[in-house]
């Protein structure tokens, strides 16, 4: 995995301020993530990144369910 690929995925997961959030999820420092731009992404990252994607997806889906609960469904029946 290249740094550019990692960045594209991480921006999709966490937005433009992705480095700190991803570092926390991977158990590394933000400095380590920044080093990967120069030194290459560690070989173990893709496997762990998939777990981060799965966890983040579950968080987003749970948030969507809360929104449905608050608004009465996917099209929002409450004002």
The tally of strands reads: 0
Report on the biggest sheet.
none
Helical coverage, percent range: over 70%
Low-confidence stretches: none
Overall average pLDDT: 93
Please report which band the strand proportion falls in: under 5%, 5-15%, 15-25%, 25-35%, 35-45% or over 45%: under 5%
Structural class: mainly alpha
Q: How many separate helices?
A: 4
- Rg is 16 Å
Oligomer: single chain
Terminal CA distance reads 45 Å
Task: Write up this protein.
The chain is an all-alpha fold and 79 residues long. The chain is 73% helix and 0% strand. The protein has helices at residues 3-14, 18-26, 30-39, 45-71.
Write the layout of secondary structure elements.
Layout: H1 3-14, H2 18-26, H3 30-39, H4 45-71
What key attributes describe this structure?
79 residues, 4 helices, 73% helix
Short description:
The chain has four helices and no strands. It has helices spanning 3-14, 18-26, 30-39, 45-71.
């Amino acid at each position: 995995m290249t740094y550019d690929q990692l960045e594209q995925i991480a921006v999709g997961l966490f937005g433009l301020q992705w480095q700190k959030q991803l570092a926390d999820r991977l158990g590394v420092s933000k400095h380590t993530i920044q080093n990967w731009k120069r030194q290459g992404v560690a070989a173990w990252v893709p496997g762990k990144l998939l777990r981060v994607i799965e966890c983040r997806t579950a968080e987003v889906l749970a948030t969507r369910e809360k929104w449905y609960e608050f608004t009465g469904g996917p099209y929002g029946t409450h004002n």
